[in-house]
Amino acid sequence: MVIRHDLEGYEKFSEFMKTFESKGKAVHVLFSGTKDDTGESWCDDCQRAWPVIEKELEKADPESYFIYVQVGDRPTWKDPNCRFRKDPKTKLLVLPTLMRWNCPQRLEGDKCEKEELVSMLFTYDEDD
After folding, report:
1. Residue 2 placed within a domain
2. Residue 1 maps to a domain
3. Per-residue pLDDT tens for 59-101?
4. Which residues form a coiled coil (predicted)?
């Protein structure tokens, strides 16, 4: 099973990534709107994408990493100075965003709802 980490907010994400070591394994990061008390994200697109991502995640290398990052509430995300938007490593424009960390592969918005694209991102091998 994929090694999973759940983080909330830019500070926790940033601190985690400073010390995180992938040991050469693939790292996938999903940026999503923060969940409310019901367990649902305020972001409708994130809600639609999550079941697809969760299903396709089962096909990923069991030794890979999956980092689920809640970016904050709607006002935090909509702020043009949101740190997730400004960080050169994340450069977020859209939620949800699913990316292969330190690689060019990324899916944004409704592309995260497409099983074939999510599957390719999770199973892509740089040696292929």
Report:
1. no
2. no
3. 899 999 999 999 999 999 999 999 999 999 999 999 999 999 9
4. none
